[in-house]
From TrEMBL:
Residues 1-44 form the SpoVT-AbrB domain. The lineage of its organism: Bacteria, Pseudomonadati, Pseudomonadota, Gammaproteobacteria, Thiohalobacterales. Keywords: DNA-binding. GO terms for molecular function: DNA binding. This is SpoVT-AbrB domain-containing protein. It comes from the Bacteria. InterPro entries: SpoVT-AbrB_dom, SpoVT-AbrB_sf, Xre/MbcA/ParS-like_toxin-bd.
Length: 115
């Protein structure tokens, strides 16, 4: 279980960070979704110079609605998906195109199309 140190830092186990694709020096973004804090790599800027973090947050919120649970959404976001060419959704959240692909797949799942 992560612990808070005297400098108010949280240390996570290395295997958990590797599983989440996080490493030393990564810039991180944190989002509060359903009373839980989600930590992910900070999103880069899109071609217009806008930070993608708000779009990424919207996708995570969409996943929470589709799967009715933060835990189920987090599991789906970090598992390879056939509809994304066996990429994990979280790996695709670094570009406008990837964000759109993940959101489109969530929309299809939401409407019963599991292809």
């Amino acid at each position: 279980m992560p612990k808070l140190d005297s400098r108010r830092r949280i240390t996570l186990p290395e295997n958990l960070c590797k599983q989440a694709g996080l490493g030393p020096g990564d810039e991180l973004a944190c989002f509060l979704i359903n009373d839980r804090i989600t930590v992910t790599k900070a999103a880069p800027h899109d071609s217009r110079g806008h930070n993608l973090s708000s779009q990424v947050l919207a996708v995570y919120e969409h996943a929470d609605r589709v799967f009715h649970s933060h835990e189920a959404a987090a599991e789906w976001m970090t598992s390879p998906q056939r509809g994304l060419g066996m990429h994990t959704p979280s790996d695709l959240l670094t570009s406008d195109e990837g964000i759109q692909q993940v959101d489109d797949l969530l929309g299809r799942i939401e409407h019963g199309d599991y292809s």
